[in-house]
Automatic annotation (TrEMBL):
This is Nuclear transport factor 2 family protein. Pfam families: SnoaL_2. It comes from Nocardioides pocheonensis. Residues 7-104 form the SnoaL-like domain. It comes from the Bacteria. SUPFAM superfamilies: NTF2-like.
């Protein structure tokens, strides 16, 4: 399977290419992030940019363990590391618009549950 848009998005974030990551998002993207500290929602590329710039984590990586695509919907499961230490696992999904941009994004992150073991 060819690499998903979602996988390319996370790689851009991890490589600190924030502008490239944001360019993959529809200007009116709707998103929700279910995190241990609470749920964050937004309705624009600018909202996502504000969230990303406020994370304050210099060495975060999203390691893809599984990904799939069904038409205009993509799913990805992986683990997050900060400074090389695994901090949790995430499950995310996106819907792509006709233009190929991410129009809707949802992610859950948990520090304890492991759905799929590392390969």
């Amino acid at each position: 399977m060819a690499e998903t848009t979602l996988s390319r998005y996370y790689r851009a974030l991890d490589e600190d290419r924030i502008d490239d990551a944001l360019a993959m998002l529809d200007p009116e993207i709707r998103f929700v992030m279910v995190l241990p500290a609470g749920t964050r929602r937004g309705e624009s590329r600018a909202d996502m940019g504000t969230y990303i710039s406020g994370r304050g984590v210099p060495d975060r990586r999203h390691l893809v363990l599984r990904e799939s695509r069904d038409g205009d919907v993509e799913f990805l499961y992986g683990k997050v590391t900060d400074g090389g230490v695994t901090t949790g696992r995430f499950l995310s999904g996106v819907r792509l618009g006709a233009d190929g941009l991410i129009a809707s994004y949802e992610v859950t992150f948990d520090t304890e549950h492991v759905l799929v073991e590392d390969r």
